[in-house]
Design a protein that fits this description.
It comes from Ascoidea rubescens DSM 1968. Pfam families: Ldh_1_C, Ldh_1_N. The protein is an alpha/beta fold. Helices cover about 45% and strands about 15% of the residues. The chain has 2 domains: about 150 residues, Rossmann fold (3-Layer(aba) Sandwich), CATH 3.40.50; about 160 residues, Alpha-Beta Complex (L-2-Hydroxyisocaproate Dehydrogenase, Chain A, domain 2), CATH 3.90.110.10. It has 11 helices and 11 strands. The strands form 3 sheets. A 6-stranded parallel β-sheet has the order 3-2-1-4-5-6, with helices on both faces. It has a 3-stranded antiparallel β-sheet with strand order 9-10-11. The termini are far apart. Bound molecules: nicotinamide-adenine-dinucleotide (NAD) and (2S)-2-hydroxybutanedioic acid.
Length: about 350
């Protein structure tokens, strides 16, 4: 079984100087609302010795800025000029992709599909060509569809490794810690909620039955679950047309990147929920599903089952699976036309 305590420890590990590692990490979309703070947090991560920042524009400026921070890594910024994408990607151990447009109020993540699908597919082609062995972390929405798009692109190039493709759902996990602590009046840094399924609305399934707060009143629990599922909308509404979550997302992305790097470097018991090629519900046609995963030197080391969960959570998962099937198929169909 996975340990919630272990997941919690992961979140504090990223700035530790105790392990010596040398990894190249590239960020595609590094000049964006997420890309900039994520680049900052990666510059502070001692496992990262080579940081490559790519964007259509502006990445050299971000790179120059964070390069003045006195940590032991080199930072370079790239644009499409002079084959910048290929150079940024070559030799990368981890590629993080937050490139793409964010939501405005009234939009769903799926409304981003038409714009972001081709951005992500084009970047995946470049990854397939230049860094086919890298672990790839997808942040661009709609994650439920962009991850299958990347898988299909990599398959078409014969370089798909299901152990190294991750949809980043860590923002749901950190939100759940914060929101449950507000309800239970506890320390959020000590709260850990396993969140499974996907990354949009009802596909986000927090397993409250696995926390210490499983007996909270039903109306409180229902409101908590709804807030975790629709936390993204809270930020989109508050930003009022200026985009979606960026700072909390950068925190979540940096945590997930650090956990993947920790796994690559051979650290044990590194567990994160993440949206991956998952056998759990494949027989029902759900190819990708977020489960707690132990990370290792090859990427995904072990995918954990959900164990015993409450009846209402089974129902939520059943609903999530139906939406996920459609989201995944949409990504697969798009890639068939794109390639
Ligand atoms: P943003 O508009 O601030 O930044 C996006 C960046 O991507 C821009 O700098 C843009 O120039 C760049 N870009 C666009 N096309 C590109 C390409 N082909 N190559 C390289 N760079 C390219 O948006 P943001 O707020 O940073 O959000 C980015 C994406 O992340 C959105 O799709 C958003 O929905 C998603 N997101 C996901 C999560 C999650 O939990 N997975 C959370 C928040 C946001
Ligand atoms: C989030 O959960 O905050 C992101 O997926 C961005 C969004 O569109 O809500």
């Amino acid at each position: 079984m996975f340990s919630a305590r272990r997941q919690l420890i992961n979140s504090f590990r990223q700035f530790s100087t105790s392990s010596i590692n040398n990894y190249k990490v590239s960020v595609l979309g590094a000049n964006g609302g997420i890309g900039q703070p994520l680049s900052l947090l990666l510059k502070l991560n001692h496992k990262v010795t080579d940081l490559a920042l790519y964007d259509l524009r502006g990445a050299p400026g971000v790179a120059a800025d964070v390069s003045h921070i006195p940590t032991n890594s080199t930072v370079k910024g790239y644009t499409p000029d002079n084959d910048g994408l290929a150079t940024a990607l070559k030799g990368s151990d981890v590629v993080i992709i937050p490139a793409g447009v964010p939501r405005k109020p009234g939009m769903t993540r799926d409304d981003l599909f038409n714009t972001n699908a081709s951005i992500v597919a084009s970047l995946a082609l470049a990854v397939a060509e230049n860094s086919p062995n890298a672990a790839i972390l997808i942040i661009s929405n709609p994650v439920n569809s962009t991850v299958p798009i990347v898988a299909e692109v990599l398959k078409s190039k014969g370089v798909y490794n299901p152990k190294k493709l991750f949809g980043v759902t860590t923002l749901d996990v950190i939100r759940a810690s914060r929101f449950i602590s507000e309800v239970a009046n506890t320390d959020p840094t000590k709260e850990q909620v396993t969140v499974v399924g996907g990354h949009s609305g009802i596909t986000i399934v927090p397993l409250i039955s696995k926390t210490l707060h499983k007996d909270i009143a039903k109306d409180v629990k229902d409101a908590l679950i709804n807030r975790i599922q629709f936390g993204g909308d809270e930020v989109v509404k508050a930003k009022d047309g200026a985009g979606s979550a960026t700072l909390s997302m950068a925190t979540a992305g940096a945590r997930m990147a650090n956990s993947v790097l920790s796994g690559l470097s051979g650290e044990k018991d590194i567990i994160e929920p993440t949206f991956i090629d998952n056998p759990l519900y494949k027989s029902e046609g759900v190819e990708f599903f977020s489960s707690p995963v132990t990370l290792g030197p090859d990427g995904v080391h072990e995918i954990h089952t959900l164990g015993t969960i409450a009846g209402f959570e089974e129902e939520m998962i059943a609903a999530a699976k139906e939406t996920l099937k459609k989201n995944i198929q949409k990504g697969v169909d798009f890639t068939g036309q794109f390639l």
